[in-house]
Every structure is written in structure tokens, then in C-alpha cells.
Amino acid sequence: MQTISRPLKLILSLLVLLNIILLVFVGYIFLNSKHGIISADRIDIKDGTGKNRIVIANVDHIPQPIIDGKKFQRAYAPAGLIFYDKNGDERGGLAITDNDETNLNALAFDYQNADAIGILAQDNKHDNYFRAGLMINDKDLSGQPGQNINRINLITENGNASLVMKDNNEVPRIILKVDSLGNPSFEMFDKNGKVSWKQ
User: Fold this and answer.
1) Contact present, 141 and 126 (Cβ < 8 Å)
2) Sorting pLDDT into bands at 50, 70 and 90, what band is 4?
3) What stretches pass through the bilayer (predicted)?
């Protein structure tokens, strides 16, 4: 019968001790939190190199957007969840914004340097304005951070439902719409934005 060497016994004992400490720590967290809930202002999930891959944060701790390794100013300070690529650049996220004027919630997936697809819901606090929809953008090949070309919007806005398709200059060329009274319409526009056909 083969005996366990002293160094191996020491390593096994250390592993058992570390497991006990880990179990005590986890048990302490759950026993001292309400119903197993963990509260935090921000949670960073990192990869093996230490770069953020997902950040969950409140409005006070949401990070600024990072594009091509550079930080930029965020238009709004939402609470939410942000996705990052392996280089640490922002690649989309979920943003919940609630300020004095409006509630704006958005889910976005990004190209390398700007928004690609966005789903949003907005309703203002001091008037009856509301909208919800899907926005699809082309990539702006100039490489300028934050630049994109809005091409397709499927949206309801104050009771008017529409599908808007634009050219690469963001000029609406086709609008398929049903207004708040239930009236359908179909319009085509020339490159200058003038109506060329309407039904």
C-alpha cells in the first residue's frame, strides 16, 4: 500500500482548509444578506487579462463609453448593463434612464465604433409624447467614433406606427405608415426628400 508523501498531505490539507474558508465566506454572505440578495453599486465581470467584459452598475457608477481604447462622454448616465469586447471596447448594453424629463430604456448592440441596432422605449413625464421601436444602422466607414448611418426604423410614436427606410444619406425614401386613426399610407421620396409617389 502506497503512502501519501508529506508535501502532498500538506497541499491536500491546505486545499481542504481553503474550501472550508470559502464555504464559511459564502455562507456568511447569504446569511447576512436579506433573503440571499447581494447589494452592490457596481459589478465588473472581467476576463483573464483583467479587462471588463460585462459591467452592471447604477447611475452613479456607470462607466463612460470606451471606443478604440479611448473614453468618451456618455450622453445620459443610465443604470444598466454594458458589454465589452476582448479589447475592452464597448459593444452594446442595456440602459435604463430616468431623469426629470423622460423615461428612456434602450437595448443596443454595437459595431466596433458606434451603435448598430437599438431597441428603445420612451415616455415623457410632462407631456403625452411616447415612442417605442427598433433602429438599424449602417456602419460609418469613416472610422469616426460614435458615427453611424440610420437606415431602418420600425417605430410607434404617439400612436402612429411606421416603417421608415432611408438611403445612405439618412434621407427617408420609403415610409409605410398607419396613423393613430387607423389610416394607412405608403410614400416614396426622391433623393432630396420630396414625395415622388404616395398612396
Assistant:
1) no
2) low
3) 12-31
Q: Which domain holds residue 120?
A: 7-32+41-158
Where are the extended beta strands (E) located within the chain?
42-46, 52-57, 66-67, 70-71, 79-84, 90-98, 102-110, 115-124, 130-139, 148-157, 160-166, 172-178, 184-189, 195-198
Q: Is the pTM of this model over 0.70?
A: yes
What gap in Å lies between CA 63 and CA 56, rounded to an integer? 10
Report if residue 82 sits inside a domain: yes
Q: Residue 150 above 90 pLDDT?
A: yes
Domain membership of residue 63 (yes or no) is: yes
Please answer whether residues 160 and 154 qualify as being in contact, where contact means their C-beta atoms are separated by less than 8 angstroms: no
Give pLDDT, residue 153.
Answer: 97
- Does 26 reside within a domain? yes
Average pLDDT in the 131-141 region?
94
Q: Helix or strand or coil: residue 184? A: strand
Number of domain units in the chain: 1
- Calpha distance 186→199 (Å, rounded): 5
